[in-house]
Amino acid sequence: MSGAGDPILEVTGLGKVYGDLRAVDGLTFALRPGEVLGLVGPNGAGKTTTLRCLAGIVRPTAGRIRIGGHDLAAAPVEAKRALAFLPDEPRLFDYLTVKEHLNLVARLYGVRGWEEKGRALLAELELAGKEGALPGELSRGMKQKLSIACGFLHDPRLIVLDEPLTGLDPLAIRKMKASLRARSAAGAALVLSSHLLPLVEELCHKVLVISGGRMVAHGSLDEIRATLGAAGAGASLEDVFVSITTAPAEPLPTTPVRPR
User: Fold this and answer.
1) 231 band by pLDDT with thresholds 50, 70 and 90
2) What is the per-residue pLDDT across 16-41, written as a single tens digit (0 to 9) for each?
3) What is the rounded distance in angstroms from the CA atom of residue 2 to the CA atom of residue 184?
4) Which parts of the sequence belong to the ABC transporter domain (predicted)?
5) For the chain, what is the radius of gyration of the CA atoms?
6) Is this prediction's pTM over 0.90?
7) pLDDT, tens digit, 9 for 90 and up, residues 41-68
8) Residues 65 and 54 sit within 8 Å (Cβ to Cβ)
9) What angle do CA 38, 44, 46 make, to 5 degrees?
10) What H or E segment, with its residue span, contains residue 215?
11) DSSP-based three-state secondary structure for 16
12) Which domains occur in the chain, in start order?
């Protein structure tokens, strides 16, 4: 059952400033086992910066991130062992084969019995028979699948995905959605960022809408609809998103920047 147990991800007062630009301002939310959170917002809203902060790639200016009970800033290795970050553009090594990529990930994370797990993942993601292929021999979609296989190999408790369906054909998209549901059902927490709002509506238990780096809505789709009154009744996530992000913004207090 989703939402049971201690939070896998806890984000408190997350902020990131680049010079005079406040890219992320005071985000606070949590995810429990099995929950899938959709992170949506207009271009330039701060989604990519938020994801990179969650993944430990970008150091926040303010706030705290805990993954699996470990503070990402104070215990980054322990926190990242519980994490998989899958960016929109696969990051692969040109001279490592598909199998060698899995072997490398297994060594980094200390995955026992990785060959059996790797074979199962390659079969699940339709890469069986490609074990000896180099990235240059793979299609864009196959590269994406290899990146996903590497991310899933160590059974992460938190999976952060940025546009995970890029480059996949319709059948692969259907199977990828089933893979994400299976990992949620097994107890992983997922953060899914995508401009494909029907995908977010289909897969996510909760939605976090940000604009200008700030949270403008958070909760289940029904909870967010309720805030819109009669206009929200039966509205799709796309309609809700447009209504929220195009409405005149009320001034919000700015979170003080505390350099770290």
Assistant:
1) low
2) 999 989 999 999 999 999 999 999 99
3) 8
4) 9-237
5) 19
6) no
7) 988 899 999 999 999 999 999 999 999 9
8) yes
9) 50
10) strand 214-219
11) strand
12) 1-82+157-164+187-247 (3.40.50.300)
Nearest to 45 by CA among 67, 72, 19, 27: 27
**Angle at CA of residue 221, ends 218 and 224, nearest 5°:** 55
DSSP state of 236: -
Q: What is the average pLDDT score of the chain?
A: 90
DSSP-based three-state secondary structure for 195: coil
Helix (H) or strand (E) holding 219: strand 214-219
Tens digits of residue pLDDT in 82-139? 999 999 888 999 999 999 999 999 999 999 999 999 999 999 999 999 999 999 999 9
The single-letter code of the amino acid at 20 is: D
17 Cβ contact partners less than 8 Å away, ≥ 6 residues apart: 23, 61, 257
Report d(CA 100, CA 119) in Å as an integer. 12
Residue 96 one-letter amino acid:
L
Give the C-alpha separation, 91 to 78, whole Å.
22
What is the residue-wise DSSP string for 101-124?
HHHHHHHHHT-TTHHHHHHHHHHH
Closest by CA to 199, choosing from 237, 233, 147, 232, is 237
Out of 106-120, 175-189, 222-236, least confident range: 222-236
